[in-house]
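Attaching the record inline, Q. Sequence:
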Amino acid sequence: MNATPLSESAGVGAPLMPVTPPPPSAASGARYALFILTLINLINYLDRYIIAVALPAIQHEFGINDTQSGWLGTVFIIVFMLASPLGGFLGDRMPRKLLVAGGVLLWSLATGASGAATSFITLLIARGVIGIGEAGYGAVAPSIISDLYPRDLRTRMLSFFYIAIPVGAAMGYGLGAWMTNSYSWHWAFYAGGVPGLILGTLAFFMPEPQRGAMDGPDAPVKLPFLEGLKGLGRNAAFWATTTGYTLMTFSIGGLGFWMPTYLERERGMPGNTTGIVFGAITAVAGLTGTLTGGWLGDKLDRRREGGGLWLSGLGLLLAAPCMYLAVNLRDSTFTFIAIGVAQFLVFFNSGPINAAIVNCVPPAFRAFAMGLNVLCIHLLGDAISPVLIGRIADAASLKTAIEVNALPVLLGGLALLLGARLLRDAAPRGRVTA
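Structure, as predicted:
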């Protein structure tokens, strides 16, 4: 017996009701891919932040000042940001898992090579090669996740992915402090490079999702480059979000690079204690902030378009005064509390801000849009902040430099609030439930 469609069983005179397709579920192999990508992101930030706690030992061995030391962070970021749009361009046109795997293997080898550096120049070169490897991964991974999970789960899934930032940074601080003080800064880099070689191999076995698979049948999966670039240029929500993200990245990049040195030099804390305590605070505040932001961001995005991005802006507005207080409180306990609260509020936006970026551009152009976003946030963000903060520190003090560093966070919060409004105004009517 043949089944009768529900719209016909109601009778000839009954109006035909449109059949609403069920919401898409996660793609096959999504959990494995998310797991591998998250672990890779963790190692990514572990490798980046080893140098922050190893810096005093590197300065002592090579005899370099604060401005020169800032270039160790800046050279990596310059190469990373310039290579990211190319990584995004390729990510829209070739199997993305190949870019991920190759990039991870390259930067892991370069991390090990950093430990073998015998001069300031060779260390700079190794840091630059790390940036090339990470560019093949950073622009592509969020677009893979957006094609593995439906829109109403993206903020949470991206939050799981970005949990790796605070945890990886904390592990970098902890591993760097322990290895540097127990052995040498060279061995800290050797140890940091090994996990990426394993994860880069595992990345070859991830699924390769179809572009736009979770964005409905009308989502464009191919787009001429110039046409996509023209549309992105007119995308006000993308640029407002990128502006806020850039200001935040400037401040956080500089703070992450210099804060352990500030605590050791100007507050008199021992180097091994500074790295471990600061790393632990970063892990706890970042983990709880990222998870909370992902959960609340998904809820607010369901209520109104741009709700998660509004939450990100609010988090940055509240984080700015906490960052200023952190270097003006004399008691070390209260200093660490202020640092923890500021980091919680900053990591609050990890999922929502990246979900807003992938949601406001077409699937066929997401990898390039993410690559362009990476270029912008680093070109005007943490590519220049370590050197600028180092210059202010050389001219005045590291405390003064960190105080000034709270201002971009405040301005970034205002930019994200504007981006949230632009997202809401541009959304098709009826997309978001009340």
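The first helix runs from residue 6 to 9. The chain has one domain: 28-426.

More tomorrow.
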